[in-house]
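Below is a filled-in request sheet from our internal design queue. Each sheet records the structural input a requester submitted and the sequence that came back. We keep these sheets so that new team members can see what a complete request looks like end to end.

REQUESTER: design group, bay 2
PRIORITY: normal
MODE: inverse folding
CHAIN LENGTH: 471
BACKBONE (tokenized):
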């Protein structure tokens, strides 16, 4: 069958697939997820049919809390129900999510992830919102670009139906939700044959019906609550297999290669980055560049974050790996590490890979870019490390010097040059004077000592040199 291509953003890609599998959409607008709900509402008004031959019943509520409650009630009534949200909107849905996740309802939420307002408000993307929902019982699928938003949206809906399990499908707000790309649009007829009709009918038969009354949502005492909670482990253990099955089905349709954890890079890599969502696209380019230079590096992109499958994760890591850097796009205040970092540490411990050194780091909160000035900070620390290592013949010092010179080369390629300061006339446009001395051996207004190097990006000062000035 001929492939269909279209230019669209991540929101439209996810909405296109969500419409196919949705009978009821409970919505409330919040940036940057609103276009998904708007598209579904528009297509419903124009009479577009879903896979079941009907238009989607769109219900706009008074808040996200109401939308989540509508999802819960609609699912209990036997209708496949979807919602779309971000940030504070997702926070308002958490109470109902515990119920939907705990009752194994095939809820699907599409999340354009965004900062949750704390010390300041921001509409831009990071993983604060969906990381808050790790304990709700929802499976969590991660997409890095509009094409993945299209494909993994299908995996989320198909897996929710077949596995009788609640799913969140997450991608970065604005970075992916509003990024325009030419992508392959999945055909509804191709998706129709992938629906697990037996599981779908079982879901409908279990719906609330006045002709067949059932008792649900009871209060239970300590004698049975714990057992019921742990009994869910058997269901949870099946979900990674269900998700991989539908990834394989999408792979057959598209020729792409989706896994729970996709490895990219040198097969004998010694250094590996673990990351998820849109940051993975940048890391891929970096991996290609470094491997061309003779390094042995790689990347593991997380697609299924919950349930976290230790076996699939460890299988994705090269046997040669010695060091892993885990990059989280969130900050969990007060924790010893961020969520993905702690999961990776625990997974490697349980799998017996204690030989791998693991470090964690944060990046891109509120979609913040990494700038040349931040690279300069690494440069400074390396320079200090070299200066404090006393033994000239020390392998440690030689290693630091090599890294130091590599950073100098990287800065040059970025167009960053060091500001000339030592012995130069003081220039307030480039130098920041913090001390003055009198020295008859120096001329008037001359820089006598540099405390911290300054840098130019082209003609622009990105950091002033901190100096001492004579006379």
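RETURNED SEQUENCE:
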């Amino acid at each position: 069958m001929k492939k269909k291509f279209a230019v669209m953003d991540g929101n439209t890609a996810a909405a296109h697939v969500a419409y196919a599998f949705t009978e009821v959409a409970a919505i409330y607008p919040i940036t940057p997820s609103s276009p998904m709900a708007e598209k579904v509402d528009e297509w419903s008004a124009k009479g577009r049919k879903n896979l079941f031959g009907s238009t989607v019943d769109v219900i706009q509520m008074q808040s996200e809390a109401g939308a989540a409650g509508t999802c819960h009630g609609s699912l209990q009534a036997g209708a496949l129900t979807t919602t779309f949200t971000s940030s504070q909107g997702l926070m308002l849905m958490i109470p109902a999510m515990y119920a939907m996740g705990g009752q194994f309802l095939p809820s699907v939420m599409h999340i354009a992830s965004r900062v949750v307002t704390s010390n300041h408000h921001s509409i831009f993307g990071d993983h604060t919102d969906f990381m808050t929902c790790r304990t709700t019982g929802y499976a969590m699928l991660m997409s890095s670009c509009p094409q993945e938003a299209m494909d993994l949206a299908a995996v989320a809906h198909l897996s929710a139906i077949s596995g009788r399990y609640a799913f969140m499908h997450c991608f970065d707000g604005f970075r992916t939700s509003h990024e325009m790309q030419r992508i392959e649009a999945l055909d509804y007829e191709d998706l129709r044959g992938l629906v697990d009709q037996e599981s779908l009918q079982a879901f409908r038969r279990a719906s609330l019906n006045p002709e067949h009354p059932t008792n649900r949502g009871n209060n239970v005492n300590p004698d049975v609550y714990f057992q019921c909670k742990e009994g869910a482990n058997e269901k949870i253990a099946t979900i990674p297999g269900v998700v991989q099955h539908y990834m394989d089905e999408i792979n057959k349709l598209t020729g792409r290669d989706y896994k729970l954890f996709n490895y990219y890079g040198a097969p004998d890599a010694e250094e590996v980055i673990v990351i998820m969502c849109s940051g993975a696209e940048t890391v891929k380019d970096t991996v290609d560049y470094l491997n061309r230079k003779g390094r042995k590096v790689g990347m593991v992109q997380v697609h299924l974050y919950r349930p976290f499958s230790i076996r699939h994760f460890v299988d994705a890591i090269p046997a040669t790996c010695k060091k892993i850097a885990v990059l989280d796009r969130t900050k969990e205040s007060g924790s010893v590490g961020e969520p993905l970092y702690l999961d990776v540490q625990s997974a490697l411990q349980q799998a017996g890979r204690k030989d791998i050194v693991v470090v964690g780091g944060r990046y891109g909160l509120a979609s913040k870019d990494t700038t040349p000035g931040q690279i300069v900070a690494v440069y400074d620390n390396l320079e200090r490390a070299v200066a404090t290592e006393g033994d000239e013949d020390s392998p440690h010092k030689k290693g630091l010097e090599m890294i130091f010179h590599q950073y100098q080369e990287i800065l040059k390629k970025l167009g960053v040059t060091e500001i000339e300061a030592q012995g130069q006339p003081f220039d307030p446009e480039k130098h920041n004077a913090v001390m003055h001395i009198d020295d008859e051996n120096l001329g008037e207004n001359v820089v006598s000592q540099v405390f911290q190097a300054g840098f130019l990006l082209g003609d622009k000062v990105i950091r002033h040199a901190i100096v001492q000035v004579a006379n």
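SHEET NOTES:
- Residues 393 and 399 are 11 Å apart (CA to CA).
- The first strand starts at residue 4 and ends at 8.
FILED BY: M.R.
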